[in-house]
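Practice problem: IgLON family member 5
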Amino acid sequence: MANAMRLLIGFMLNLAALTAVVLGNHHESLSLSPAEHSVVRYTNESLIVQCRSPNPDVRLQWKSPRGEIIRENKGRIHFEQTSPEQLKIVFAHIALADKGNWTCEAAEGGLHSKSFDLIVYQKITFTENATVMTVKEGDKATILCEVKGEPQPNVTWHFNGQPISAGAADDSKFRILADGLLINKVTQNDTGEYACRAYQVNSIASDMQERTVLMKIEHKPIWSPSPFVSLKYAYINGTATIMCEAQAEPPANFSWHRKQKHLHSNQKLYTIETDNYWSRLTIRVVNASAFDNYRCRAWNDLGSIERTTRLEQGEKPPAPSNFKLRGFNSNTFDVVLSAPRGKEDRGLMEVNGFRIEYMTEMEFKTDAGKWTYAKRKDYPFEEGATFLLTNLEPDTDYLVRAASRNLAGFSDWTRVEKYRTLSLEPRASAGVLQPAIVILAVVALCQVLRPSLV
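Answer key — structure tokens:
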């Protein structure tokens, strides 16, 4: 009995060894192309793997990682039979769910099989696409940044280019959440750009993507930091301009008032120009009644502010004297200007600057003799100074005029002068020497003659 048992056990062991050899031989009888045991792809990429049998009589089939037989011959995942001994599996657009072990085997069963592991990575994507958000001052704000990717990306936050150091406590300024950034008790200082940066490293490559959100803080109007002038001057038949600048979110509405009257633009007395953060009132002073208090009000749904500018009567400045060209080249005019000085002391109404307007003669003719589109430059007053007009066109006639400025406005314009820039082409004949050249020549001559003069 014991001998019979030993014989049975020996037979079973020999049978198992033979089965293993046969299984190994059959496993090696199939081949895959590409032959890698692991294939790595990103989502939405394509892939074709060919399974080949040395025996054309063996019918092949593909199985998914879940054991499902691929029966479709078209679609996102399908098979293609190119010859009796070849069967391809085609992934038109790979998805994350496709990862796992894919097997090619004999359809009738048996021991024929060959498999590969499909490893699927997903590039970084953001589910949110808003680029601007608005939050009321004092509220909490959550900037969403839900990131998808395989492997899961790491996320960091930056504010106006600087990294954010976030705490875990509820009372900290910033808290990094799984899908965003929490900001407690927002203030106007929190206005700016918040960048969510996602980093990903895998066996194929590394990747970094960034999503930027501009956060605006809703608040009532506040005056802009530019200097406020509470007292302005003008002269009769002149004009006065009063500026009103305020920051607000949403942008402020502006209105102008004189006493209890709400002012509007009209052709006779007032012109009002308004943008998101400023408003400008221009007053035409037709008589002495225009000298009064003018009040600007800036407001939105969160509050309002207002302030008053006093307009008083001043004196019209005298037109510039000694207006002439001192020197020029192909792109610059050097202009002499001075202010007439009388015996009387003008005090506050003394000339404090000049304005020069200029345009090409062709532009003047095109504009029907108007100065609407003339270029202009303003200069502070300096005794004995000259003033440069630069970036001119060479070999071109320019029309030039000037006016004086004081606290009450501008003077009448001088007579229009016509000046011409030099050509860039060298001149063969001797021309009139320019003042700068003459000065340089005199200096050189003095240096030569100095020893003999001593």
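Discussion: The longest helix spans residues 2-29. Students who identified this feature from the tokens alone can consider the problem solved.
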